[in-house]
Inverse folding.
């Protein structure tokens, strides 16, 4: 299986010593510049994380459209949009517009979202789960409405008093093929199987809210295997895509050792919202060491797309150098070659 690689930026900004992203504007503009640099390096994807009420990237569509207008080949996407916060019909309009601007390169990851510092943030936005349902139910139901909308389903009717007829209306614009480029960010094996059932690609989370005692990569590989089996059982007429993300910090200069030389290179296990959860490790060290470790990573072997998280606050030049090291010395070991 030929691999694709991309970068994933959380888009942090803070007016702090050493930060190259002091403002939201810095973070947004530098994300665009890093995408341009990544495309020049042959990287396949530029992805952003979406968090609300944080000094991080929050409104992805203007950013994705800008990246699409500045680039010509690289895939652009999210990992992930928290659907609890979204109006699915307005989001369908925004997604189609961004996809058309990029020439059909949008790879949109959506999900229930991750743990937050805000209390009931989606409710502040005006979205409250109906009585007897959960926030996860709300995210899934909105996702299904969104999928119907980008597929051209009738979501409204014409006004006979103004048009003289009664007919169905779909969201506009429509972008052909977008439905097949939607991904669900799954934090459990069961949600991966649900994603397969509705026919969306899989973004396996670096935080799995379950722990069976096996290493993270094996648990993630099992999730991917169950997803593929559920996809086959559902009888969809295309091959799905599967992405995972990895924190990879190659040390090639002394400044890298200063920043990352003391990183913990082990899985983290702990309680998250009362559930025993397993977190993926960080790969920090010499490039050949990281290459060997990733080549032996069960989930890296199982996925077709690997997203490398970047320390965006260190600036465009620094992160472009990390990506250049990955393309030359690490990614070929996992089956990637430049397009």
């Amino acid at each position: 299986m030929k691999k694709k690689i991309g970068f994933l930026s959380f888009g942090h900004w803070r007016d702090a010593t050493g930060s190259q992203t002091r403002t939201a504007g810095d973070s947004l503009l530098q994300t665009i510049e890093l995408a341009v640099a990544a495309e020049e390096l042959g990287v396949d994807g530029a992805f952003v994380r979406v968090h609300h009420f944080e000094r991080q990237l929050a409104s992805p569509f203007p950013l994705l459209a800008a990246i699409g207008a500045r680039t010509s080949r690289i895939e652009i996407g999210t990992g992930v949009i928290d659907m609890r916060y979204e109006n699915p019909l307005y989001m369908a309009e925004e997604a189609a517009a961004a996809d058309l601007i990029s020439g059909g390169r949008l790879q949109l990851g959506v999900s229930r979202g991750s743990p937050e510092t805000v209390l009931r943030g989606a409710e502040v936005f005006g979205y409250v789960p109906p009585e007897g349902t959960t926030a996860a139910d709300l995210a899934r139901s909105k996702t299904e409405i969104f999928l119907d909308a980008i597929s051209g389903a009738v979501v409204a009717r014409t006004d006979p008093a103004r048009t003289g007829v009664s007919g169905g209306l779909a969201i506009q614009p429509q972008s052909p093929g977008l439905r097949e480029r939607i991904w669900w960010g799954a934090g459990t094996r069961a949600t991966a199987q649900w994603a397969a059932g509705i026919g969306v690609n899989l973004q396996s989370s670096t935080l799995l809210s379950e722990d069976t005692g096996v290493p993270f990569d094996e648990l993630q590989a099992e999730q991917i295997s169950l997803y593929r089996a559920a996809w086959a059982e559902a009888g969809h007429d295309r091959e799905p895509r599967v992405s995972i993300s990895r924190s990879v910090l190659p040390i090639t200069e002394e400044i890298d050792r200063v920043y990352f030389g003391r990183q913990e290179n082990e899985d983290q296990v702990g309680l998250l919202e009362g559930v025993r959860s397993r977190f993926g490790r960080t790969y920090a060290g010499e490039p050949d060491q990281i290459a060997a470790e990733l080549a032996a990573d069960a989930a890296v072997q199982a996925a077709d797309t690997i997203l490398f998280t970047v320390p965006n606050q260190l600036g465009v030049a620094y992160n472009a150098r990390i990506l250049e090291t990955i393309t030359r010395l690490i990614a070929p070991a996992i089956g990637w070659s430049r397009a």
User: Anything to note?
Assistant: The longest helix spans residues 216-234.
